[in-house]
Specification:
The chain has a domain of 34 residues. It starts with a helix and ends with a helix. It is mostly helical. Helix content is 75%, strand content 0%. The longest helix has 32 residues. The protein is built from three helices and no strands.
Length: 67
Amino acid sequence: MSLEEKIVKQVHDLPESKKAEVLDFVEYLKTKSVEKGWSEFSLSSAMSGMEDEDTPYSLDDLKEYFS
């Protein structure tokens, strides 16, 4: 039995209210994966060409800000 078949069987036995929760969770997971892909793409595009630039901040600046 495939993983998909196992999931369908488990969901089939649930009451309607729990099936609705499963659907919400599946939709959340799909949205999360799409958003992650776009955010990574956007960040990589925004930072493109900046890999070799010097930063105006030092490690001491970070320590002071996050302490």
